[in-house]
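hey can u check if this looks right to u? its 367 residues, i copy pasted from the old doc so theres a chance i mangled smth
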Amino acid sequence: MTAEHPLTGRLRKYHSNFYYVEAEGVLYECALRGIIKKEGTEPLVGDFVELDSVHLPSKTARINRVLARKNAITRPKLANVDQVIVVYSLKEPEFDPHQMDRYLTHIELAGLTPILCISKADLAQTETDLANIQTLYADGLGYQVFFTSVKKPESLDALRALTKHKISVLAGPSGSGKSSLLNTLNQHLRLRVGEVSEKISRGQHTTRHVELLTLFEEEPDTLIADTPGFSNLKFNYVLPDRLQEVFRDFAELRPHCSFSDCLHVDEEGCAVRADEAVINGTRYQSYLNMLAESRLYKEAASVSSQKEEFGYKQLDRKGKDALRILRLKEKNRDASRRTVRQQVSLLEQHDQAEESLEEEVQESETD
């Protein structure tokens, strides 16, 4: 039996080239319609999609269309999310402020406000370990910060309340305790938990794909995404001016810079650099590192746009010398053909004018 009308559902998981879409309480294993691939559209977990070719007995279908999104993030790849919770361990592996800054900035660039969840808080050796993070990220930058430990389930109460009736994303490096947190919130999930390598002090990847999970059975609209960890978040896709715009450390002083395109590095009249107390030294170094990557992207984009819009191809001819022929790129061919036609037309007009002039001269000589 095949459904006669298209269904609309939410993409819950992508794994092994199949899309798993929940529609009307049924989870369908779906292929992607060919035209969507040709258009270059990539369905993301969290997308609302339209299904056709729905086969109810086998629970299979085909994604016919991806509906409009309210937002999207690329690392991890998700759409239509309400909030992103960055989970980062205090110890094992050691808290890395530069890496944390990269997560926060990527999320800000996606138009979302990140929430910080510092896991393994029970490993704090002194109160200062937690106080420094609270002072910088909560008091100084205005982020919500939660300190949690799976050994103290009550520490997860605030996080549990925060996720209700929302679609949340857990992001953060491997080994930070994302899966352990979810297992503590809902023991029925039984997500695989990895160990931290003693040699390199990094977590092992336990989550292999992005999936939206129902966090509480009694709240089907409370969804959370467990995602693969990331160890390298580059800024090779954003221009420098956009990067500095989302760096909230500069917000109050940015309007007072002498130049509207100030990047707060070595420009004269920079209000940010004039006030050394405005930004934490670690945060500023994070910004400079990100900016260097962003500038490389800008340079590469500039070089790419200035490349010559032509090439050559070799035409072999039997018994004759090979010809080297100019080969224009597609977007310039029509313009080039128009130019050639115009030139030919001008030459023809010029020849006709010369012929008319010669006839007039001959006639005058005869007379």
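The first helix runs from residue 34 to 39.
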